[in-house]
Specification:
binds pyridoxal-5'-phosphate, alpha/beta, 14 strands, three-stranded antiparallel beta sheet, 482 residues, 2 domains, five-stranded mixed beta sheet
């Protein structure tokens, strides 16, 4: 994406690619949208693609691939062991992170399983800037305790702080002092912090975390799944890095970390994952588990086609035009919403645009799931599918009490190079309409609530008939328009 000056003075992100394969979309009438979300138990995970217009559920495995990636997929070498494809990915890892050892895994959480099994033992502590659902689950499963030590500004929904994903090194020192370095399995930095709105950390912060790790002999593990956005933010928001190339920034990150793992469903625009390290000792410890859980060392549960695509995708990630597309579209969307008074997480981050449901729907209490309610309302208003990232995504405690999340967000992910700007403008329009009619939106309650992962499978119903009223208002305001 280029920041080209428009003669009109307008600030419009300009796509530096052209679209050569398209998929037809449906925009079904509002009555059908209400029916569909009801059939889905008011859970956007359970909607069918044929009823969805803009799928902003996630950026996982749905980013557009390049012509070069597709071409590489045709050249792959399929064999169980000794495939010619695998060294191409190893070479790309070396170029990007400068790390010699690479272990393949079928996706990000599989890498987390292996790292947690090797390094986490009961009673150990894993400090991190912020957790991701699967990262935390694997650590907890192995008896570890997650300590979130993000800077205080990180949890401030509306802010202008450029690096809300930074880890607070004073809090890290305090943890070491309290528990002793031996009890700390590793320190985990998640780049492009997913659950707090795709917010980046700075390169300087990573250097400072490294210093503390060196001082106490701690292992630094880096979750690079959302690295592409974070690289862009380091380059554009961190003054001292302005003259570094994207590749130089990535190489320094590689130099600062002991282990880097990633989901290639995000990083590299394909489907897969892996673990990189410079230390043979760590590689040897994890190697057996890869063959046990994932597959032989030259494929690790991935198809060789995907491995070819990741190798090319990782190299393409070093191109500023490529990685700026997501952040610039998100910035456009966030700024338009802010200009219309809609409460969103600021500053704009990576990954997507996050509506702040607590401020959007102040009358819906957390016990009635404001972010989940907003997700259903936006689907009714525009066929736009988002993901609830609030209390429904949490789990009840041992006593069956609700655990309310820090934030109630509706995440509208921006898969890279997938939507056009007019589609983004359409989403903004429907959100602004919904905001003007927010008094109509009510809460939800569970009708089927699984104990585990209720956000995936749970079913809910609207409290009262607010969704029908919303449809009636839509028809009044939009007439025959879909
Ligand atoms: C998606 C994601 C993961 C898990 O990756 P999968 O490929 O979905 O298993 C881990 N960490 C972060 C930050 C992610 O965004």
């Amino acid at each position: 994406m280029s920041v080209v000056k428009f003669f009109s003075g307008a600030k419009v992100p300009l796509e530096m690619h052209k679209v050569r394969i398209v998929q037809k979309l449906n925009l079904v009438p509002v009555d059908r949208r209400l029916e569909a979300i009801t059939e889905a138990g008011n859970n956007t995970f359970l909607l069918k693609n044929r009823d969805i217009f803009l799928d902003m559920l996630t950026d996982s495995g749905v980013n557009a691939m390049s012509d070069k990636q597709l071409a590489a997929m045709m050249e792959c070498d399929d064999s169980y062991a000794g495939s010619e494809t695998f060294p191409k990915l190893e070479a790309a890892i070396m170029d990007v992170f400068g790390m010699e050892y690479f272990l393949p895994a079928h996706q990000g959480r599989a890498a987390e399983n292996i790292i947690s099994k090797v390094f986490v033992s009961p009673g150990t502590i894993i400090p991190m800037n912020y957790h991701f659902t699967t990262s935390k689950a694997h650590i907890v499963l192995n008896g570890g305790l997650v300590e979130e030590i993000i800077i205080d500004e990180g949890l401030n929904v509306s802010s202008s702080y450029p690096f809300k994903g930074n880890l607070d090194t004073a809090k890290l020192e305090a943890l070491v002092k309290k528990h002793g370095a031996k009890k700390i399995a590793f320190v985990r930095i998640e780049t492009g912090t997913n659950l707090i709105g795709g917010q980046p950390h700075s390169l300087q912060n990573l250097r400072e975390v490294r210093k503390v790790c060196d001082k106490h002999g701690l292992i630094l593990v880096f979750d690079a799944s959302l690295l592409a956005d974070n690289l862009y933010f380091i380059k554009t928001r961190e003054k001292a890095c302005r003259n570094m190339s994207i590749n130089e920034i990535a190489r320094e990150i590689g130099d600062l970390c002991d282990i880097i793992y990633f989901s290639a469903r995000k990083l590299g625009c394909a489907r897969g994952g892996g673990i990189c390290t410079r230390k043979k000792e760590y590689y040897m410890k994890m190697r057996e588990l890869v063959t046990l859980y994932e597959g032989f060392l030259t494929y690790g549960g991935m198809s060789v086609r995907e491995i070819e695509a990741i190798a090319v995708g990782l190299r393409e990630t070093m191109d500023e035009d490529m990685i700026s597309q997501g952040p610039l579209f998100i910035e456009f969307m966030v700024n338009e919403l802010v200009a219309n008074g809609v409460p969103v997480v600021t500053p704009p981050g990576g990954l997507g645009c996050h509506l702040d449901a607590m401020r959007f729907l102040p009358k819906v209490p957390q016990s009635e799931y404001p972010a989940g309610a907003l997700a259903t309302a936006l689907f009714i208003a525009g066929g736009v599918r988002g993901m609830e990232r609030g209390s429904i995504s949490e789990q009840r405690d041992e006593n069956g009490n609700e655990v309310y999340s820090n934030m109630e967000l509706l995440r509208l992910a921006m898969p890279r190079r997938v939507f056009t700007l007019s589609q983004v403008k359409y989403a903004v329009d429907r959100i602004v309409w919904l905001y003007k009619n927010r008094d109509l939106v009510g809460g939800l309650s569970f009708i089927e609530e699984p104990k585990m992962l209720r956000f995936f499978f749970g079913k809910l119903k609207a409290k009262g008939d607010w969704q029908k009223k919303l449809v009636a208002r839509f028809k009044k305001d939009f007439g025959d328009s879909l």
